[in-house]
Fold this protein.
Amino acid sequence: MSTDAAGSEIPREVLTWDRFGTASRELATLVADDGYRPDLVLAIARGGLLPAGALAYALDVKNVATINVEFYTGVDERLAVPVMLPPVPEVVDIAGARVLIVDDVADTGRTLEVVYDFCAAHVAEARTAVLYEKPHSAVRCEYVWRRTDRWINFPWSTLPPVV
């Protein structure tokens, strides 16, 4: 268990690589069982890259794109507003598509909100899928593997960079 600046323990949700395999397959099953057949899986980089790839394979969707939104700068530290970083997907590439927007977590929901709003004016339909959704998220995702109010340790971002 980690501690905050005041020395209090912070409860954590820990997602292992093995559990990620199970989680992504179960999340894909939720999408498939709902009858949603996306034309495009849109990964929110960086956290949504691995879940989006897993969902794209499980849902047999070969059209995968990324959008990079900077918001978090550390544990519970974020910019004032989410910022889309270039390159932003070309509208012509998503126009009229059924899009599944994927991220690892809907924490505040503001990142998903920015991406959803960007897509909504151009696509036939946009839905969201996340591994985790927090109770205070501004966005209620259509597809959620687990709900939690804890900070989440993801296997791809728990260890510090090697450089």
